[in-house]
Design brief:
Layout lengths: L7 H15 L9 H18 L1 H7 L4 E26 L2 E28 L2 H9 L2 E3 L6 E4 L16 E7 L2 E2 L9 E4 L3
Parallel strand pairs: 4-5
Antiparallel strand pairs: 1-2, 2-5, 2-7, 3-7, 5-6
């Protein structure tokens, strides 16, 4: 009877886990109607509970909402989720976000994030290549709980403000730097 070595099993598990997270699902986010409903609900909860998000939402040129991102890893990790771009309250496009990471990590979590695109430069960057990599291109500021209390439309000077949220408010320790955002085929 052959046994796998102890290093092969974790490596195979990590590769399988990453492939399962990053590979697009057959049913594209169940459907656009469900995704739009979930994104609207997440945005409503965010703007109701975070004053800075509410303030920025009235002045943003567009808002890109990813209501549910799944992140998991065991040394090698990945994250994936689908979202909706809203302009003037109307859904105008569907996107996914994905990223991979390597390092000291183990476990899984779900979270969401909303990106408030404050100007035409941010929208052009999103449309130029059917998406962009966070951290390359327009300036993205991730708003944490402390900053969320002081950001107003008069202090907001960057291209994009991102709010990472979970079921109980803003989350700490989750980053979106390096995530690739890609437009989905309608």
């Amino acid at each position: 009877m052959a046994m796998q070595t102890s290093t092969a099993l974790p490596r195979h598990f990590a590769v399988a886990l990453l492939a399962g997270l990053i590979a697009p699902t057959v049913a594209l986010a169940a459907n656009h109607a469900d995704l739009e409903r979930d994104a609207r609900s997440a945005l409503k909860k965010l703007t109701a509970s975070v004053p800075a998000a509410k303030s920025l939402s009235g002045h943003a040129a567009a808002v890109l909402v990813f209501p549910k991102i799944t992140k998991a890893g065991l040394v090698i990790g990945g994250q994936y989720g689908d979202g909706v771009l809203f302009k003037g309250g109307k859904a105008v496009g569907y996107y996914n976000t994905s990223g991979a990471s390597y390092g000291l990590q183990a476990g899984a979590q779900q979270y969401g994030y909303a990106m408030f695109l404050m100007n035409g430069k941010a929208i052009v960057a999103l449309d130029a290549n059917n998406g962009f990599e966070v951290g390359v291109g327009p300036s993205v500021v991730v708003v944490d709980e402390g900053m969320g209390k002081s950001v107003t439309t008069t202090t907001a000077k960057d291209d994009i403000y991102a709010f990472i949220f979970g079921q109980k408010g803003l989350m700490a320790g989750v980053g979106i730097q390096g995530n690739k955002i890609t437009r989905l085929k309608d």
